[in-house]
Specification:
Layout (H helix, E strand, L loop, with lengths): L7 H8 L4 E6 L12 H14 L29 H17 L4 E6 L8 H10 L4 E6 L4 H10 L40 H8 L12 H20 L4
Parallel strand pairs: 1-2, 2-3
Amino acid sequence: MRISESTWFEVETWLERDDRCILPLGSTEQHAHLSLSVDSILSEKVAADAAEPLGVPVFPAVAYGLTPYFMAFPGTVTLRLATYAALVRDILDSLYATGFRRVLIVNGHGGNSPVQPVTMEWMQDHPGARCRFHDWWRAPQTWAAVQATDPVASHASWMENFPWTRLPGRPVPQEQKPFVPFDRLRDRNAAGVRALIGDGNYGGVYQKPDEDMARIWEVAVAETRAQLEGDWA
C-alpha cells in the first residue's frame, strides 16, 4: 500500500489490525549517467515490492539526505546532519502519533547512515515502539548477490543501473572504469572529490544485462520483506 496511492480512510482501516509501516530514505545526488534520484527511486521501489503481498503501508521516500561530498555536481542537494536528524525524528513522531508502532526504515543512501542513532533515541522516548534501519543494497544476501555477479561494483556503476533508474536517450560508457582510491576521498572537499572521480562512477562497468539485475532485485526484495516479517518482539 503506497501512501501516495491511498486515502486516510484506508490507512485507518490498516491500523485497526496492524501497526507496521515502511519509511524509505533516499537522496538527490549525482549518479554519473543515471538519475539524480537513484537512491530515492530504489529505496521506495524495493520497499513497495517487499510490502506488496503484505499490504504494509509504504511512505514516500525522503528525497533529500546527507551528501556534502557531491556538492560540486550540479543537481545535488544536501542537508546538514542536525537538520536531517530533526527531520527523521519529526517523521517518526508523526507516525507514532497516528498509530504506527513498528517502523522499518529502508535506507537507499550510505551517507544517511549517521542518522541511525536517532532511531535508537526515538525508541527510548517511545516505549513499545520499534524502528529497524535496513540498508537494503548492502544487506548480507543482496551484497552477496552483487559480488557474485561482479565484485567490481560501486556508486553509480552497474549495481545501481536498473531499468527504473536509467534515463532514456542517455547512453552509458561501455568500458570498465578503474576503482577510485577510496582512501584519497576521505580528506577531500567537494571540489576535490569531483576532480578525483570525474563523471561520478566510483569504479566498474556502467551496465549489466537486465536479467542479472532482476536476479539481484529478487534477492533484495525478499531480504527486505524478511525484515517486515521478522520477530518484532
